[in-house]
Amino acid sequence: MGSAEAAPPAARDPLRDSWLRYLGYANEVGESFRAIVPVWLVWSTYGVATTYVTVDAIDKGKRAAVAHEHSSGKRARVAVAVVDTFIWQSLASVAIPGFTINRICAASLYLLGTMTRWPVSVRKWTTTAIGLSAIPFIVKPIDRSVDFLMDSSLRKLYSTEETPPSS
């Protein structure tokens, strides 16, 4: 055996490493369907995504409390974990992707209306398909952009040696 020991495997995070993670994308799905479902249903998907974000932030706060149980700065570390996760998730999982999919779908519906003679129902379903298919392509760039934004601003206020819980 070498002088360096292997690091213990990271604990599994059910909110990040299971199907529960997809609840954070509920509003993007809702925005994709905006042209064909009632608006209240679209807004309810924002409720699902916001609930996911809130639960994740609370979970990261609890994990920070356990990890820093005997630290003098425990309260501050818990607060940072909750605030950082909530803001990061709110931007990266709800606000920016929801706006992005909304604009992709609005532009698609408009362009299909001006460039085709397809029936309205076909244009709306095509818009929905375009919105749904765009989701996998926007996630990583938005995540990276939010990391950059937070690393360049808010995270400078509570700079720590550790990786932020939201990354």
TrEMBL record:
| Any GO BP | mitochondrial fission
Pfam families recorded: MTP18 (PF10558)
What are the annotated GO cellular component locations? mitochondrion
**Hey, which family's this protein in?**
Belongs to the MTFP1 family.
Protein name, please? Mitochondrial fission process protein 1
Organism of derivation:
Alligator mississippiensis (American alligator)
Recorded name of the encoding gene? MTFP1
